[in-house]
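Two entries, shown back to back:
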Amino acid sequence: MENTLDGNAAGGILGAIFPVDMTLAQATCAGCGATNAVGAVVVYAHGMGTVLRCPACDTVLMRITHAGERYWLDVRGIQVLQLRMEV
């Protein structure tokens, strides 16, 4: 699909929400158990929001919508999200 990007394309919107580089975070898919860096997942970005999908099984990992001063995150497709905090 022509609207498909890699997970780095979601770095901007994720950076507006999280204080760490989320493209380096490890996400474990609730559908198949595959673990990938967020920067390696499949992203569909369009006017309605951003959708991150598992590259192994196509499960929706995360949906992000931004309107005005609010963000909506649906992360039910991520079983575990591991963040590395710089010390």
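entry 2 starts here
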Amino acid sequence: MDPIAIFQRLRIKDSSINDLWLAQGDALRAWHTNRAEKDVAISLNTGAGKTLVGLLIGQSLVNETKSLVIYACSSIQLVLQTEKKADGYGLPITTYVRGEFSNDRATKGDAVCLTTYQALFNGKSKFFNREIAGIVFDDAHTAEHLLREHFSLRISKERLEEVYLAIAKEFADYFYTVGLTTSFDEIINGTGGRLLLAPPFEVRRGHAGILKALQDSPVASDETTPSRGPTSKIGS
């Protein structure tokens, strides 16, 4: 369904909303024309009403597919703010925060599901085995660090010294060869504050050893927050 048509049928509670702004209408028409595309990016100026645009696009996909459509925000606070705005717009909504759905509208294919990037992108995501018809990414350009954080593995030497040292050992020869012996040894001994990054080709070379060290470790069951002690950073 055309998202502008959805807006025109809403019973709007927010007295400050009279009609769509020009930029909002243009964005919705452009998206509707290209809705069959796999990925569509919409750029609006700050304060141009992107939340309403995103929610209308999400509801349009819900009406079309009768399936789960997610609107991802960067924090729980923004989820709750967006929920409040959706209520003012007269749009039905479901939230998923802190492991709980607020209602079953989204699972029934009646409403957009508001949640966080963190809830959507993690190894134990509630949405992993669910059929998702579409995702609206709010402020996608600011979410890079959130996704990077959730797909980065940090191993504290204080908590998991054995696996920390096993992984570090895979890169010892490389750092010795490139003249960083002292820096590497200081980090391993906990006396240096420098950060050393292993290049991608060394990660690929040591992949088997890294994987074995992780598989033989309690990392998978360790759900505590790592301390701020020395950590092993896997990646480039």
